[in-house]
Amino acid sequence: MLLKLSTMKENILVMNKLRIVGATFFVTAAIAVISSCSDKRSTGLEYAPNMYKALAFNPDQPNKNFRNGQTAQVPPPHTMPVGFDEVEEAYPNTPEGYQAASANLVNPFPATTANLEDGKILYLRMCSHCHGLTGQGDGSIVQLGKFPGPPSYSKGNSSRGGTMKDLTDGKIFHTITYGVNLMGPHRYQLTPDERWKIVLYVHELQKLQ
Ligand code: HEC
What does the pLDDT read at residue 15? Predict the structure, then answer.
């Protein structure tokens, strides 16, 4: 009899434990469900919320620090966005832009030894794998058979009319800036000054026999 009583007590304890675990699970689950559904726009529980909610103002947020109460301000007159290039703006990537560049643009860099040397280094890095070390259209990727060879600077013809050796400052600058057909644009890789120095060196390659 005594033995039976003690096993009954143990059973009741186990049952209570199970009930407590069950209830805890239910309450936790309910809290999780309720807190995630109450507000559709809420992200729920946030870890390190200062990563989501920055101290900085959003551009569209009201801002008392400015007279007009806005965060996004109009730039002061005569300012230019980063990377803005007046020449690119004036000579767009169109056949007319190409012809206008040819008629009006003159290389601002004189053909000094130093400028030509800079141009050569840039040409070898940025152009020679297609156009070839001496501009004959036999660059390394052409020799691998991976790319159709561009026309030779000294002997070929331009797909836009005329011979390659007659290409002007403006046409070469426009081509480096925007690319043409299979040749991609290089305006994000090369600054306008770098492009002009390359133009100097391409003129040297146009003279080769
Ligand atoms: C991915 C290969 C490739 C690279 C890199 C490349 N070109 Fe070209 N380039 C070509 C091809 C192909 C053509 C011929 C495109 C056509 O006319 O259809 C061409 C055409 C040209 C022309 C003739 C444009 C015209 O009006 O006919 C010039 C000038 C030129 N490239 C200069 C350069 C210079 C300078 C560089 C380096 C800054 C360069 N290219 C980089 C492939 C390349």
Answer: 73
CA of 149 to the centre of ligand 1 (A): 10
Give me the amino acid identity at 13. L
The rounded distance, in Å, linking the Cα atoms of 173 and 42 is: 53
Ligand 1 pocket, mutate which of 91, 116, 118, 127 (most atoms under 8 A from CB): 127
152 contacts 137 by C-beta, under 8 angstroms? yes
* Dist CA 139 CA 1 (whole Å): 101
Give the C-alpha separation, 163 to 152, whole Å: 10
Each residue's pLDDT tens digit, 111-120:
999 999 999 9
Gap between the Cα atoms of 27 and 67, Å rounded: 52
Report phi then psi at 196, rounded to 5. Answer: -65, -40
The residue whose C-alpha atom lies closest to atom 14 belonging to ligand 1 is: 150
Q: What six digits make up the tokens of 50?
A: 């200062």
d(CA 22, CA 14): 12
Contacts of residue 165, Cβ cutoff 8 Å, sequence gap at least 6: 153, 154, 155, 206, 207
Convert the pLDDT of each residue in 87-109 to its tens digit.
788 999 999 999 999 999 999 99
